[in-house]
Every structure is written in structure tokens, then in C-alpha cells.
Amino acid sequence: KNGVNIGSVNRIYDNFLSKNLRSANSKVSENEALYQTLSQLENLLQSDKDNIGAYLNDAVKSIRELGLEASTTNRATFLNRLSTLTSRINSLGDQIQKEKANATDYIKTNVKEVNSLTSQLASINTNIFNNVGGDNSDLFDQQEQLLQKLSQHLDFTTTADEKGVVNVMLKNGISLVDNNKSYELNTKNNP
User: Fold this and answer.
1) What phi and psi, each to the nearest 5 degrees, are found at residue 95?
2) pLDDT tens-digit readout, 110-140
3) Residue 101 CB-density burial (10 A; 0-12 exposed, 13-18 middle, 19+ buried)
4) How buried is residue 67: exposed, middle or buried, by Cβ count under 10 Å (0-12/13-18/19+)?
């Protein structure tokens, strides 16, 4: 007789390494998002050609010149520089509002993704629970993939029962997945 007879497939899995990988993913993702946001703000505030400090210095210089000699030319220069400073501040405010809107959209997109992932995890938990005596290796692999994806969005802890049903909690203890139920996160605008 030719061929191979496979009696079973064993799933090799290291929970410790998996948890550490998820934690590292979470920290990397958090730092990348923070870096990107701060870099964009830094670029707005430190632009060489539109540096707000230069406009402010010009306005202060005009005030000094006006104090030394209150001529029509100095008044006009002062008003012109003050108008330019005001325009730059308003433009900067508009750009910051756009960045705030971008950040809000980013957060909303991530919350939708987190809610989708936790819903899928709850569904897999149901399948694991209902598959009494069956091979759950594929379900455990799917579960781990979802946990890895979730770790790219937030930091969390997990507990698993003897069947492998996983519960997911935020670091502050708020439950995201409890057995076969997922709890959605929501966003709220902060004016």
C-alpha cells in the first residue's frame, strides 16, 4: 500500500508569544498613529515660508516702528503686517480643523473595524462552543488572526475557557467580547 496515513493534526500554539506579539502590535500601531499626527502638526507650525513666528515678529517690529515714528507709512505698514498675521492665523486654524477632521475620520474608521473584528470573534466563540468533540483548529487559527488584527487597533487582554472560547477586555476592564456577545465601541465628537 502506498501513501501516508494521518491519524490527526495537532495544533502547535504558544499563548505567551501570541500575547506578546499582540501587545507589541498594539504599541507599534499606537506610536505610528501618534507620530503621523504630530508630524503633520509640526509641518503646519514649522513651515519655513509660512512660519507664524516670522509674521508675529514682523507685526511686533511694525509696532516698535510706529512707536518711534507715528507716520502714515508706518501706520499703513503696521496695519498691513497685522492683516497678514491675522490671515496666517486664520489659515493655520483652518488647516488645524482639517487635520482634526482627518483624525476624527481615522478614529471612526478604526472603531468600525474594531466592532467588526469583535463581532467576528463572538461568532467564532459560538462556533467553538457548539462544536463539541470536533476539531476546532481552524477556528482557533481564525480566532488568533482576528486577535492579531484587533491588536493593530487597541491594547487589550484576553482570557480563554477550557474549550478555547476567548473573552476580550480593554486594559481598563471594559469587555469587548464576552463568550458569544460582542460589545460595540462608539465615537463621540468633542467640540
Assistant:
1) -65, -40
2) 999 999 999 999 999 999 999 877 888 899 9
3) exposed
4) exposed
Q: Round to the nearest angstrom and report the end-to-end CA distance of the chain.
A: 75
- Find where cell 484576553 sits: 158
Closest to 37 in 3D by CA, of 115, 91, 104, 112: 104
Question: Average pLDDT in the 76-89 region?
Answer: 88
**pLDDT tens figures, 8-40:** 445 555 667 677 777 777 777 777 877 888 888
Give residue 80's Cα distance to chain centre.
42
The DSSP letter of residue 158 is E
What three-state secondary structure class fits 156?
strand
E strands within 115-189?
156-160, 166-170, 175-178, 181-182
* Higher pLDDT, residue 181 or 25: 181
pTM of the model: 0.73
Q: Which of 138, 139, 125, 134 is nearest to 179 (CA)?
A: 125
Please state, in angstroms and as integers, the Cα–Cα distance from residue 190 to each residue in 12, 38, 174, 185, following that order: 46, 19, 21, 16
| Distance, CA of 179 to CA of 143 (rounded, Å) | 13
